[in-house]
Design a protein that fits this description.
elongated; three-stranded antiparallel β-sheet; about 290 residues; 11 strands; 3 helices; about 15% helix
């Protein structure tokens, strides 16, 4: 009975072990991951990659299984060590390395000069979004005769992506960096506005929330609004009042007709008459 019990116990252990192995065993597939931290815009080399077993049921979409397919490809986002290399993180085939690989299709990279104040004390880092504020003069008021201040500040561009600060494009850093130049990602139309804005006034960067893409329409701020809270009214031309007509007294002498000589010996006296015109009225007085 003891021997039978031992045999039954061994069989139970073996069966339980097999059942546990079947439950825990999961099919795996080789997937390419980053062997080191790789910055965006970098070309991938075999030394940067390695193959690992990845559970077949949780392989992310676009995962690469052949390291040779990644030779010479360029990353458009930063990848950390142990992170899977996905097709969505790669620039199109034939792309050269550098910042140009990071610029989205249809957009451009443009650099503006900044300082510690204009650059938000160095907090405008790659990957952040900023608004562009310009301080200039309003030439539309220059032709008025009234003495007004022509200064105006206006937001001309909103939700602009910062691609790089100085010569660094890494988006993993969170420490502020005071630099003298910032590279922005803009559309061709935004590039024209930005170029004109920096030529007519002083630019400032306004850091905004990364998850707040909502645009805000503003009319700009002038010195008059800033100090008094309202726009200075435009000068109103004084109406020209026509002068009242002045009535002139015109005296017109009218020669009276002399009466025909009477048959009688006595001759009647001839009267002297004068026509008097006053405004629109006229009358004749005789004396």
């Amino acid at each position: 009975m003891i021997v039978v019990s031992i045999i039954v116990g061994l069989v139970a252990v073996v069966m339980a072990s097999q059942w546990i192995n079947k439950q825990t065993s999961v099919s795996a597939q080789k997937v390419v991951i980053a062997a080191v931290d790789v910055d965006l815009g970098s070309k991938l080399t075999p030394e940067m990659l390695r193959l690992v077993d990845w559970p077949s049921g949780s392989i992310p979409d676009g995962a690469i299984v052949d390291p040779q397919a990644l030779d010479g490809r360029v990353l458009k986002t930063s990848v950390l060590r142990g992170e899977a290399i996905l097709e969505s993180k790669l620039a199109p085939l034939g792309t050269k390395g550098g910042l140009s690989a990071v610029v989205m299709e249809g957009k451009r990279a443009m650099t503006v000069r900044v300082n510690d104040v204009i650059g938000v004390a160095g907090f405008a880092l790659p990957g952040n979004y900023v608004d562009i504020l310009v301080n200039t003069t309003d030439d539309a008021k220059a032709n008025t005769k009234e003495k007004v201040d022509l200064s105006i500040s206006k937001i001309v561009l909103e939700h602009i992506l910062v691609l790089a600060v100085a010569q660094e494009a890494s988006r993993d850093d969170t420490k502020p960096k005071v630099v003298n130049a910032v590279t922005l990602e803009v559309t061709p139309e935004q590039a024209e506005k930005l170029d004109l804005a920096r030529s007519v006034g002083t630019l400032s960067l306004v850091l905004r929330n990364q998850v707040d893409p909502k645009p805000v329409e503003t009319s700009g701020i002038t010195k008059q609004i800033l100090l008094r809270g309202e726009e200075e009214p435009a000068p109103v031309a004084k109406p020209v009042v026509a002068s009242k007509p002045v009535a002139k007294r015109v005296v017109k002498k009218v020669a009276a007709k002399r009466p025909a000589p009477a048959k009688s010996a006595s001759v009647a006296a001839t009267p002297n008459c004068v026509e008097i015109v006053s405004g629109t009225s006229r009358h004749i007085e005789c004396f």
